[in-house]
Amino acid sequence: MDGKFLDDFKVTPKYSLKIKKNFLPTAITELSKIILKEKPDFVINQGDTNTVLASSLACNKLNYNGKKTKLVHVEAGLRSYDKSMPEEINRIITDQLSDILLVPTKESKKNLLKENIKSSKIFIVGNTISDSIKENKIKINHILSKDFLTRAKRPLNSRLDCTSLEKDYGIKQPDWRKSLSTVLEDLK
Q1: Total domain count, the chain
Q2: Total H helices, total E strands in the chain
Q3: pLDDT tens-digit map of 56-81
Q4: The pairing of beta strand 70-74 with beta strand 100-103
Q5: Is the pLDDT of residue 98 over 70?
């Protein structure tokens, strides 16, 4: 995680993996060492990153060698149904390996039930990001482009366009400007 975010939220990690190459196998190995050393009752993953996948695989691998560490996935059940996205694969695998699945919505729970995950493992807990912002009245500071390690590459036309969702899947999306405005209003 970027140091700027850690500083903003006053978080000091006990471990920091500085992996430069062969990320997945190296992360699985390093996370396995940490899990073996710490012997946690739970490993809690949030999201759909490669680190979440590595942590899920490490935890699953170690559970065959002794004490069971329960794997918890926060933001479980989110689906894009686009398996060309690495994050989608990470979500599916992590959800299948998890012992406890914390989902943001009823729809996310339905997604997991369709994938034959037991209902007893699924808990609707809401959206952690928006709930945290509301509850803690967190001030979100703007981050200047110069503060990013690498500059974002954007297509020439980078507006938010959801027309393919409607065209390909028949899903009509509300205007993003109105939705954004509503969310920002709710956060006040």
Answers
A1: 2
A2: 8, 4
A3: 999 998 886 666 899 999 999 999 99
A4: parallel
A5: yes
Tokens coding 16: 């920091």
Is the same domain home to 18 and 31? Answer: yes
d(CA 178, CA 175): 6
Considering the domain architecture, whether residues 87 and 137 belong to the same structural domain is answered as: yes
CATH code for position 137:
3.40.50.2000
Q: Which two tokens stand for residue 133?
A: 């912002």
| The residue type at 153 | K
CA-only gyration radius of the chain, Å? 19
Same domain? For 121 and 172 the reply is no
Per-residue CA distances from 37 to 15, 32, 53, 86 (Å): 12, 9, 20, 30
Q: What secondary structure letter does DSSP report for 119?
A: G
**Of 125, 81, 84, nearest to 102 (Cα)?**
125
CA distances from 146 to 5, 104, 142 (A): 15, 33, 12
